[in-house]
Amino acid sequence: MALRTADDYRAGLKDGRRVVYQGRHVDATTEPDFIDAINHSALCYDIHDRNPELSVGELDGEPTSAFWLAPTSQEALARRGRLIEEVSRLGGGTIVLKEVGSDALFALLRVTTGEYQRNAQAFAAEVRRRDLALCVGQTDVKGDRSKGPSAQDDPDLYLRVVDEDETTITVRGAKTHTSFSANADEIVVLPTRAMGPDDADYAVSFAIPIDTPGLTLYVSPFSAGETNEFEHPLASRHKLLESLTVFDDVKVPKDRVFMLRQPELAGPLALAFVDFHRYTAINYKLPLLDQIVGAALLMAEANGIARAAHVKSKITALITWAETVRMLAELAGLNATESQNGVWRPDPLAVNMAKYHFAHGFNEATAHLIDIAGGLLITGPGGADWDNPEVRAVLEKYYAGAVPGEQRLRLANFVADLTAHSYGGYQRVLALHAEGSLEAEKLEILRSYDAGRARDYVQQLAGIEI
What we know:
By secondary structure, the protein is of the alpha+beta class. It has helices at residues 6-12, 32-41, 43-50, 52-55, 74-90, 98-111, 114-130, 263-284, 286-302, 309-334, 348-373, 376-379, 383-387, 389-398, 405-419, 422-433, 438-448, 451-462; strands at 18-21, 24-26, 56-59, 62-65, 134-137, 160-164, 168-179, 186-189, 204-209, 215-219, 242-253, 257-260, 337-338, 344-345. The strands form four sheets. Strands 2-1-10-11-7-6 form a six-stranded mixed beta sheet, with no helix packed on it.
């Protein structure tokens, strides 16, 4: 086994992958708009040097990235939560890379059976040995959402098996919202939903290298273009690449297949991924919560309003929101339970309550922050102004508050990046839809809650039996 360096990771992206960006076929390693995203993802390799105690584990006497160690106890799951929080803190409160792929890997180890379990175990060993970077293709494009996979007018709107021979299967279709696809080594494909007998061809899971023939990535241009550090302290350094991921009769070796025409397992595998992925979400969001609370405190001081009653009330609300998510995240690890194949599962009730509470409160939290910061978020000067010494002198004079003008402007730009610019819009959409929508989280809360305790107690007090 070997721990790759960030440079090893970058070098591994130089292959024959097909990437389309803004209408052009591009080299992912040299496209200017991709550089920040690749550097951001490389943090999951940098962390091995920055914090080896947390990020490096051991398996069979060899060092391995702790991201790839399946949790086999409550403490192991809690450690994973701390690792995710730490690498997200390096990444400005944005998910980095290895978290998503390892979520998928653990789901496969939990749910797969028979020869497909053996394939999953062999793949997990390969990932650990090579310290690979994995992305996950789960969300199908879905077409008419009132219809299931096999009922669509166009059968390719869910990824499906179209052919099979002795050594391979052939798949066709597309996945969407695929984070990190252009800068990962391999993609793990999972089903997006529960399926019935008629959907057997769609009940498929596998892993292949990104440069596999027939696989094409259409990368979103959201947040494209250069950004300067003065105006965009977050967006200038931290970025994700998302794609429509198209499989045009892609051949998959059968030893890389983890589920094949097993519709009865499609739902359990999808939910197993959700268990881990939402646990990842509530831990990688913790630095973002700290950013929002910290920015509110500093902006209140900079504007000279920290003692105002309404400001104290807003900051108290922000602290309550942030710390509730943090405590639920910790509870999800403490209440973890052992499940299939020895892989421990984070408590789904605490996980989904944390994710719902974060997402449900995000808009109000950012509104409080904007209110405290003021209109300077969108009326302030730009980086070119700041770079001109003559103009800078004017800005420093007239934008001074309870702190010097530079501090106040840089704080305002930080808040604007977080809430008002394209990076803030990206975070807003992530809050509502990444790792599952509010409705999906509500369904899991209802499914995970043990209603018997409350029902039985009331029946006992009321002297009835229903």
